[in-house]
Automatic annotation (TrEMBL):
Entry GO MF terms: catalytic activity
Gene3D superfamilies listed in its UniProt record: HUPs, P-loop containing nucleotide triphosphate hydrolases
Coiled coil residues, start to end: none
Domain of life assignment: Bacteria
PANTHER family linked to this entry: NADR_TTD14 AAA DOMAIN-CONTAINING PROTEIN (PTHR37512:SF1), TRIFUNCTIONAL NAD BIOSYNTHESIS/REGULATOR PROTEIN NADR (PTHR37512)
Protein name per the record: Transcriptional regulator NadR
Organism: Dactylosporangium matsuzakiense
Residue span(s) of domain NadR/Ttd14 AAA: 200-347
């Protein structure tokens, strides 16, 4: 039998420990031989053992960890890596590899990471791969590098850190796959990343043109969410202060519901419409409403149906003028839009066709 100290590949597990022997030995070791070898191995392990060799509890010893990645985008695989790292250290630094051709700006990725992992430090790393350790060491001297990459041990050695391997195969997702077809990996997208990829479709138009009915119907059709008109929720009496509240509430509701969207989020009105309402009522709008974020598609509801709205908000005679003002602004800004006319069914059919075209443009 080969001595336990020579440790060829383990062949047998016996007596609570591995016992090692030559696979080709004749005769094969008996149970007594294996038991003796296992006992010898235990004696060698415990001869110089002291309890303090275990070290302090992970995370309670002031250790500093580092995670390195592109995060294009942040997904649940990254979340597992970072949460695993946070279970081991008191301080975690996340370094984001950035390049000129990154499809998602660093500031966006940084905001995602800080929202998901408050208390971490998020820093960009530029340059070639060989330069990354130097850039990292300029910021922090880590004890650990957490990595699921093959080059993790080499990078850790250059940092003077210990590499803690993390199993990257537990969650079968990749940034490359998400960038190619994000909604095939929907369950791996954190809420802020889901909002980034959600396409926004705005139902816009004058009063009593079926925007709310269409927004609800489209959300049902595409199994997703919709956002009601905030100005209507604030009541019929509109003041300059109401405009500001409506704009803030509309923007917040859109962003919050986009985090819960399935591919699409439909909005009954958006900040562009709020600005035009303000211009119509007061001849001016808040400066911060001059350049609202555009929707991916506007569905302009024509005023070709009987008026049934609140007479104090928009008289029937003013609907056409307001519709024309909206259309002129969409054209001026170069926003993509489709005009919807006819009864509810006709509008819904036209809207679905337009949204399906948008889906093909965005995701194939």
């Amino acid at each position: 039998m080969v001595s336990a100290a020579t440790t060829p590949p383990p062949i047998a597990w016996y007596g609570g420990s591995f016992a090692y022997y030559d696979e080709d030995s004749t005769p094969p070791p008996s149970d007594a031989d294996l038991d003796a070898a296992a006992g010898q191995a235990r004696d060698e392990r415990t001869a110089n053992f002291t309890l303090d060799q275990f070290g302090p509890e992970p995370g309670g010893d002031g250790k500093v960890g580092v995670v390195l990645g592109r995060f294009l985008p942040v997904h649940d695989g990254h979340r597992y890596l970072i949460e695993f790292a946070l279970a081991h250290v008191a301080e975690l630094h996340i370094f984001v590899r950035v390049g000129d051709d990154d499809p998602i700006p660093f500031d966006v990725r940084r905001a995602w990471l800080l929202e998901l992992f408050p208390g971490t430090a998020v820093t960009p790393v530029e340059g070639e791969r060989e330069q990354w350790p130097e850039r990292i060491l300029a910021e922090v001297r880590p004890d650990y590098l957490f990595s699921g990459e093959p080059d993790g041990p080499g990078t850790a050695a250059r940092l003077g850190a210990e590499c803690i391997p993390v199993n990257r195969h537990l969650l079968l997702v990749s940034g490359t796959g998400i960038r190619k077809s994000p909604w095939d990996y929907e369950r791996f997208l954190p809420p802020p990343v889901r909002a980034w990829y959600a396409a926004r479709v705005c139902l816009i138009g004058a009063e009593s043109t079926g925007k709310t009915t269409l927004a609800e119907g489209l959300a049902r059709h595409y199994d997703t969410v919709w956002v009601p008109e905030r100005l209507r929720e604030l009541g019929p009496d509109i003041t300059p202060a109401t405009i500001a509240l409506a704009a803030r509430g509309q923007s917040a509701a859109e962003d919050l519901m986009a985090r819960r969207a399935h591919r699409l989020v439909f909005t009954d009105t958006d900040l562009l419409a709020v600005r035009l309402w303000s211009m119509r009522l007061f001849g001016a709008a808040p400066p911060w409403l001059q350049t609202p974020e555009p929707a991916h598609l506007y569905l302009l509801c024509a005023p070709d149906r009987q008026f049934s709205g609140d007479i104090r908000r928009n008289t029937p005679a003013e609907r056409l003028a307001f519709h024309e003002a909206i259309e002129a602004e969409l054209v001026r800004l170069g926003r993509p839009y489709v005009t919807l006319e006819g009864d509810d069914d006709q509008r819904l059919t036209r809207a679905v066709a337009a949204v399906d075209d948008l889906r093909r443009q965005l995701w194939g």
